[in-house]
Design a protein that fits this description.
Elements: H1 2-39, E1 42-43, E2 53-54, H2 58-64, H3 67-99, H4 105-112, H5 114-117, H6 120-130, H7 137-144, H8 156-184, H9 188-196, H10 201-212, H11 214-229, H12 233-239, H13 253-263, H14 267-301
Antiparallel strand pairs: 1-2
InterPro entries: ABC_transporter_permease (IPR051393), MetI-like (IPR000515), MetI-like_sf (IPR035906)
Subcellular location: Cell membrane
Protein name: Sugar ABC transporter permease
Length: 302
C-alpha cells in the first residue's frame, strides 16, 4: 500500500519542475500577445484606455492605407540589409582569424564583446557626434579625400547608413564569438585532412568551415532578421526624433509603432502595428528556414 503513495510524488515531480516556466510564459508572453491582438480590434486612446470601441479590422486597414507605414517598412528592410550583411560577413571573417593561433587572442575575444556591453544610448550619442554634418569626424575624413560634407541626418541613404553603422558596431563582436564557438566544434581532423590534401586556408574555409557552420549561420541570420525588424533604440536616439527624421527617411517599424501609440495616442493602431510586425517576423523566419532546408536537401543529393 505504501508504493502507490510514494509513486505519486515522483510522477508529479517533473510537472512541478516545468510549471514555473509555463506560468511565467503565460503571464508575460502569451497573455500580452493575445491581449495585443484583442486591443488591435478596438479603437483605444491613450487618454482613455478603458473606453473600447469596436473597429474590427479598421485599425489594420487604416495602417495599410498610411503611406508612412510603407515608408517605415521600406526603411526597416533597407536598414536591415545594410546592417545585417556587413555585420555577419565581418563577424565571420573575425571569427576565422581568431580561430587560428594568434598572440593575445584571449584579449581580442574579450574586446569584441565591449561594443555589445556598451549602452545603446551611449553608443548612439557618440555616433551621432561622429556623423555630425559640420564638425563630425566622419565628414572630416571624407573631406581629406576631397569630397564635400555629407548630411548624415537629413539624407535618406546617408542617415540609413549611419544608423546601420551603429548596429554593425554593436553586434559584430557578439556574432563573431558565436561563429568562433561554432568553428571550435568542427572536428580538427577535417582541417588536418584538408591540409594534407594541399588545401590552402581559403579552401579550408570554403569547404570545411562554411559547411560546418551552416546551422550557426542560419541561427545568426534568423536572430539578426528579428533584431532588424524590431530596431528601435538606435534610430530613436540618433537624432532624438520619433518620426525618424524630417521626411521619415529612417523611421523603422518600431518607431512607427511608438509614434502611433505614444505620439498620436492611438493604442489600437499601435497594437495592430505590433501584430503586423509579428506576422512579418514569422514570414521572414519561415522563408529563412525553407531556404536553409532546401540548401541542405540539395547538398544531400550531391
Amino acid at each position: 500500500m505504501s508504493r502507490p503513495r510514494n509513486r505519486a510524488p515522483r510522477t508529479l515531480a517533473p510537472y512541478a519542475y516545468v510549471t514555473p516556466f509555463f506560468a511565467l510564459f503565460a503571464a508575460f508572453g502569451l497573455f500580452p500577445l493575445l491581449y495585443t491582438a484583442f486591443v488591435s480590434l478596438y479603437r483605444v486612446e491613450l487618454q482613455t484606455p478603458g473606453d473600447l470601441q469596436w473597429r474590427g479590422l479598421g485599425n489594420y486597414t487604416a495602417i495599410l492605407a498610411d503611406d508612412y507605414f510603407w515608408t517605415a517598412l521600406r526603411n526597416t528592410f533597407t536598414i536591415g540589409v545594410l546592417s545585417t550583411v556587413p555585420q555577419l560577413a565581418t563577424a565571420l571573417g573575425l571569427a576565422h582569424l581568431l580561430h587560428y593561433k594568434l598572440r593575445g587572442r584571449t584579449f581580442f575575444r574579450t574586446a569584441m564583446l565591449l561594443p555589445y556591453a556598451t549602452s545603446v544610448a551611449a553608443a548612439t550619442l557618440v555616433f551621432g557626434q561622429l556623423f555630425g554634418r559640420d564638425f563630425g569626424l566622419v565628414n572630416y575624413v571624407v573631406g581629406l579625400v576631397g569630397l564635400g560634407p555629407v548630411d548624415w541626418q537629413n539624407g535618406t541613404l546617408a542617415s540609413q547608413v549611419a544608423v546601420s553603422s551603429i548596429v554593425v558596431w554593436r553586434w559584430t563582436g557578439y556574432n563573431a564569438l558565436i561563429y568562433l564557438a561554432g568553428m571550435q566544434s568542427i572536428p580538427a581532423e577535417l582541417y588536418e585532412a584538408a591540409e594534407v590534401d594541399g588545401a590552402s586556408r581559403w579552401r579550408q574555409f570554403v569547404h570545411v568551415t562554411l559547411p560546418g557552420l551552416r546551422p550557426t549561420i542560419v541561427f545568426t541570420v534568423v536572430v539578426s532578421t528579428i533584431g532588424a525588424t524590431q530596431l528601435f533604440g538606435e534610430p530613436l536616439l540618433f537624432e532624438g526624433s520619433v518620426s525618424g527624421g524630417i521626411s521619415h527617411q529612417y523611421q523603422t517599424l518600431g518607431l512607427y509603432l511608438y509614434e502611433q501609440g505614444w505620439g498620436f495616442f492611438h493604442l489600437g493602431r499601435a497594437a495592430a502595428v505590433a501584430w503586423l510586425m509579428f506576422l512579418l517576423i514569422v514570414v521572414l523566419v519561415g522563408v529563412n528556414a525553407l531556404l536553409a532546408r532546401r540548401r541542405s536537401r540539395e547538398e544531400v543529393r550531391r
